[in-house]
Write a structure and sequence with these properties.
alpha/beta, Arc Repressor Mutant, subunit A, four-stranded parallel β-sheet, two-stranded antiparallel sheet
């Protein structure tokens, strides 16, 4: 069995190790694939669209009938849009390739139509899309609320921000900061490592984690 494992993170600062281990273990333990039968496709980019090189290589191999199964850690790694998720699953299964989501407790999707499995997929996809949009909205609202607080006009800008006439403005490294803080919250990265990665003090990481609304976490 030829298996394609697809892994993706949103920024270059995030680590793919957990997804690499999860998908490879699943391919071997659940699908009986040997290491020589597994091809891994990697992306470090946003999941809000499918304009990604690893994703495109995966789809090319699916359409060339080179894969029997595709394994993804969870649906949010494949797409953040319900429309793109549905289109991708249809595209994969139309070539008699199974698609497996490790973490979502879904049955494998195959060529035949399974209305219940499709409904479960759409529900999870809709939730993932909603969650991504809520995080974006919470970030904007959190920034707006903090800008009305005098401390933010006169104190130093939080990690990942600078000030423009007293208003908070996202720095270029803002998304790297969000990714690092998210990993610290999930205990995938220590505060010390996060501080080294972001070139700041551990206390700065601690203060940022007390203001999670600024980062949509």
């Amino acid at each position: 069995m030829q298996v394609g494992c697809y892994v993706r993170v949103s920024t270059t600062g995030q680590n793919l190790d957990r997804q690499l281990s999860s998908t490879a273990d699943y391919a071997q333990d659940e699908l009986g694939a040997g290491l020589q039968d597994i091809e891994t496709y990697r992306d470090k980019s946003t999941g809000t669209n499918t304009d990604r090189s690893g994703y495109q290589d995966l789809m090319d191999d699916v359409e060339a009938n080179g894969l029997d199964a595709v394994v993804v850690h969870d649906i949010t790694r494949l797409a953040r849009s319900l429309q793109d998720l549905d289109r991708t699953v249809e595209r994969v299964t139309s070539h008699n390739t199974e698609i497996h989501f490790v973490r979502d407790n879904l049955p494998p999707f195959m060529g035949e139509d399974d209305p219940m499995a499709r409904l479960m997929l759409q529900m999870l996809g809709a939730f993932a899309e909603w969650e991504a949009r809520v995080k974006q909205m919470n970030t904007r609202e959190g920034i707006a609320a903090r800008q009305e607080n005098e401390d933010y006009h006169h104190g130093p800008a939080p990690l990942g921000f600078s000030k423009d006439d007293g208003r908070l403005v996202e720095n270029e490294d803002y998304h790297d900061v969000v990714a690092a803080l998210d990993m610290v919250q999930k205990e995938e990265l220590s505060k010390r490592k996060a501080a080294e990665r972001l070139d700041c003090a551990r206390s700065t990481i601690g203060r940022a984690l007390e203001r999670t609304e600024l980062y949509g976490l």
